[in-house]
Structure formats: C-alpha cells, structure tokens
Q: What sequence folds into this?
C-alpha cells in the first residue's frame, strides 16, 4: 500500500533560520504531491503542489519544494522562517492515475518558530 | 462567503451512542471527503463521494457511515461500532475528484466520547 513518511515530528527553529522538512513516499509510479499547512486555529490549506515539469515548485508565503524522483522525496524548504510560520505541515501523495483523489497523508510535522 | 462549514466545533457523546457530524459546502464541488486526524498519524480517509448518491470507503471506514443526498452536503455518522471514535474529524471537498484537484478543508469537529 502507498505510504507517506515525514521523519521530523517536531521542529523548533529561531526566526530567520532555514527550514527543510522531509517527505518520502512509497509509490513507484507517477504521483502527484502536495504540501498542506494547518496554522493554529485555522483550516488546513494548500501550500504547494507538484504534478509534472520543473521539479522545484514554489508555493505561498515563500515556501518551495523539490521533487527528487530517484529518492522518492518531496522536501519542503524555506530560506528564512518567521514566527508566523508556526504550524503543522502535512505532506500528501496520490498516484496520478487514481480515480478517486484518495490522498495519502504523512503523519505531519509540528514547526515552532521562536521569535 | 464561500467555503466548507462543519458543525458543531466540539461534540461530546456517551459511549454507545451514534452521532452525526455535519459538513456543508457552497463551492459547487462534486467531490467530498471525510478524514480523521489523530496526533502523529496525519489524516486518514474515512469515506469519499465523487457524485451525489454515490460514495466509496476509504482506509478506515469501519464503524462509520455517510450519505450524499445533496451535492452540498456530506454528513458522517459515527456509530457505536467504531471502537475508538474520539478524534478530530475533517471534511473536505474538491472540484471533480481528479487526482490533480486541490482539496479544500473545513474547520473540523472535535468529537469526544465519554
């Protein structure tokens, strides 16, 4: 069965530090990949997504992610975090050919940014 | 104000009782989903529906039931057969249910079974 792994469950950074959150998926075929974010007290919302083309995708609020097919990875990055980036981040994947849009989510990473 | 609404925000029930969680969307989306969120486990799909009067089981459908009588509504019933119902439940919708669609999420309902 397809799975998505996020290796860091909790990350604590100081403001202006660089961020990289790991995400690995287990599906061998073509996949669509997503990063969602859940800010405290807010709805889960899309940060960015990758379907095809340039493996470096840019999302909202200065986030980007790189798809590395050989490593089955889709890591999320931000050069300089802000206190407002404190949130829980979820990686998700779905086989391209999936007819039901059944996303598989990773376990989430809680990021705390200290001011 | 377009979006997905879930009610109530907090719900308390006694063990052995069925409870129904509401989900409504005014985005005119065809597809709707129910997820369960538990700490450290991310979101797990309970049921999804791509069209009115049709729905499919997700990864953890046992102990749950749904209906899709109207496009905008997708209520979830947590039955007494669900062994561990205390959790945060999220409803989502997407335009058509294709694998490239973005899913839009509601604010969630936190269910506590006493």
A:
């Amino acid at each position: 069965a397809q799975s998505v792994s996020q290796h860091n469950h909790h990350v604590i950074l100081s403001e202006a530090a660089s961020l990289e959150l790991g995400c690995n998926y287990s599906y061998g075929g073509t996949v669509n990949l997503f990063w969602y974010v859940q800010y405290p007290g807010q709805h889960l919302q899309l940060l960015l997504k990758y379907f095809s083309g340039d493996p470096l995708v840019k999302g909202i609020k200065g986030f980007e992610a790189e798809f590395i097919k050989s490593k089955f990875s889709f890591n999320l990055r931000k050069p300089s975090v802000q206190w407002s980036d404190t949130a829980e981040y979820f990686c998700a994947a779905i086989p391209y050919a999936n007819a039901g849009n059944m996303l598989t989510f990773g376990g989430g990473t809680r990021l705390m940014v200290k001011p | 104000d377009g979006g997905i609404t879930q009610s109530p925000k907090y719900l308390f029930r006694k063990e052995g009782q069925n409870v129904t969680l509401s989900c409504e969307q005014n985005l005119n989306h065809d597809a709707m989903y129910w997820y369960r969120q538990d700490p450290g486990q991310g979101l797990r799909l309970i049921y999804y529906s791509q069209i009115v009067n049709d729905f499919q089981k997700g990864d953890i459908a046992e102990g749950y039931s749904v209906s899709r009588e109207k496009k905008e509504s997708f209520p979830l019933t947590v039955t007494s057969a669900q062994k561990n119902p205390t959790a945060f439940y999220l409803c989502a919708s997407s335009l058509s249910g294709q694998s490239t669609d973005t899913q839009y999420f509601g604010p969630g309902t936190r269910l506590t079974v006493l």
Remarks:
- The two ends of chain A are 41 Å apart (CA to CA).
